[in-house]
Structure formats: C-alpha cells, structure tokens
Amino acid sequence: MIATLPVGLSRNGQILTQVDVAVPTGAMLRQTRDNFLSNKRRQLYLDLAKAAITKIDGLGTPTESDILSMYMVDVEFVYYTLALLDCAGKKPELSHTCPHCGNVFKREYDLEKVRVARLGDEGFDTPFDNPERAAPFVLSKPVTGIDADDLDRGYTRGKVGLMSFGDWLDITCPKKTEIRGIGTVQSESLVRGIIELGPDWRNTGRVAVLDKMPTCDIKTIEKVYNGERPGVKPDTEVECPRCERTFDVFGFDWVTDFFVSSAV
Predict the structure, then answer these.
(1) Using CA of residue 247, residue 253, residue 256, residue 259, what is the dihedral sign?
(2) For residue 138, what is the enclosing H or E element?
(3) What string of DSSP letters covers 249-264?
(4) How many Cα atoms within 13 Å fall on the side-chain side of residue 99?
(5) Buried b (16+ CB within 10 A) or exposed e, 197-210
(6) Torsion of CA 33, 38, 42, 46, to 10 degrees
(7) For residue range 131-151, what is the model confidence (pLDDT) as tens digits?
(8) pLDDT of 26-59, one tens digit each?
(9) Which DSSP state fits 62?
(10) Could you tell me if 10 and 115 lie in one domain?
(11) In this structure, are 236 and 215 located in the same domain?
(12) Quick check: is 129 in a domain?
C-alpha cells in the first residue's frame, strides 16, 4: 500500500513523503508478538518498522539508518496504517477504566475516521512547517550552564523540533535494562527535542540543565513541543456509559493496542 507520510524525510534537498507499507502478514505478527512477550521493547518497534516500510519513493529500500532517521510522527503513521490494514474495515474495541466511577468498559473505534494532519494540508497550521521542522519558544528566566566553556551566559530564546524515531527508541526503549520514571522520560524527550538554546546546546544539552529551570519555563517548552504538530490525531476523549462523565486517555499505542492484540 502506498501511503503519504505526514512530514517526510529530507534527502539531497528533496522531501520524500511516499512510502510503500507492507500488508501485515502472519510472519510480521509472529515476530512482533515474540518481541512483545519477551519484553524486547526496542526490537518490538524497530523490527516492525523495518518489516512494514518496504520502499521510500526516491530512496528505494530503506536501511535501518534511514528508518531511525525518520520522524517519530511518520513512523507512528506507519504503525497506524498497519493497524488500519489489519482491521480490514472492522472496528476494534479497547478496554477503558473510568477514573471517576471505576467502571470498566469497552469502546469501539473506527480507524478509518482517524484524522491524519500533514504538512501543507489546507487549514492545518503548525509552527513545525518550516525547513528546520522547529518551533520557537521564549523563557521567562535566562538559562545558564549551557556553554561548553562553563561561562555564566544566559539564554532565553530557543527552538524545539520534531523527534526522530531513533531518539524516541533511545529514550523510551533504552538498550540497557533500567527502570525509568515518566518524569525522566519526559525530561529526556525535551532535551532531545530542543535543537537550539544557545550555541552549544547540541553538544551540552542535558537533563541537569532542565532540572535547574523554573517549572513555568519547562511547561512553556512542553506546550510548544506537544502543541499542534503533524501526525495521527485520534479522538482521545472517552465517555463512561455508566456515569456519563468524560475523560481523556493518555494516547494510543498502535502496535500493542491494535496490531499485537486481538481487539477486532
């Protein structure tokens, strides 16, 4: 299946957006479930992406390096496409627990109606629609400790960009076995996401710098970083059928929630 990525890869001055996504097979499902049950989280996502993306128009068969350099929003779109093909027109069900009354229930999802926002779409305005794929932010207090020569120089203006698939794997699926809290994962995501904050940020950017920042400035960067960006946009608001109150689910994992499971 030929699909159009929300952002695309930049190669030799061209933006490559057309990819061939393989129809999911029993072999792909077996390997993915093996990785899932063996808790090989990194291989779970990487192997599936390598099996699914068979060709990138203008590049040919992608290497592992090509896939790792793709934006995470593009790889997430490929996972969504796999789930869409896997469901074959059927509507999968996911279980949810209401945080208000504790009711456990299932909700049906129509994946064909999920919105996909692409750069250049009419009516879709995003600060990431530029050659750098970066959005600016301004801090209330200058940040110091960034310069490699340890000069006490402060910076208030910077840019945050879209995360690559490789960076996402490094943060959420580290090669070394370790337990990471959600706060650490979010801080490391911001460190990777910030592409400019003083001239030495790319070399010295680290969580220790963020740890010294006021929480209001951390949240300023997070708001820009998590703002209106391209990619798959599922409806995450759920209504409990018992108490009729609504709540937001944290998000979907198109691999484990829809492809690996038997939700259909």
Answers:
(1) positive
(2) strand 134-143
(3) -----IIIIIIIS---
(4) 7
(5) bbeebeebbeeebb
(6) -30
(7) 999 999 999 999 888 887 767
(8) 999 999 999 999 989 999 999 999 999 999 999 9
(9) P
(10) yes
(11) no
(12) no
Supply angle C-alpha 129, 255, 82, rounded to 5. 70
SS3 content of the chain, % helix, strand, coil (to 5): 35, 25, 40
Tokens, residue 235? 């409806």
- Partnered with residue 185 across adjacent β-strands are none
Domain hosting 201: range is 134-225
Helix (H) or strand (E) holding 39: none
Same-domain pairing of 92 and 217: no
Looking at the structure, do residues 255 and 237 belong to the same domain, yes or no? yes
Whether 21 and 86 share a structural domain: yes
Q: What are the φ/ψ torsions at residue 103 (nearest 5 degrees)? A: -65, 135
Domain count of the chain?
Answer: 2
Q: Is 18 exposed, middle or buried (0-12, 13-18, 19+ CB in 10 A)?
A: middle
Give SS3 for 47: helix
**pTM (2 d.p.):** 0.90
Q: Which helix (H) or strand (E) holds 116?
A: strand 115-117
Quote the pLDDT of residue 226.
Answer: 83
Q: What token pair was written down for 200? A: 């030495």
Chain Cα centroid distance, residue 198: 25
| CB environment 141-153: b (16+ within 10 A), e (fewer) | eebbebbeeeeee
Q: Are 254 and 85 in contact (CB under 8 A)?
A: no
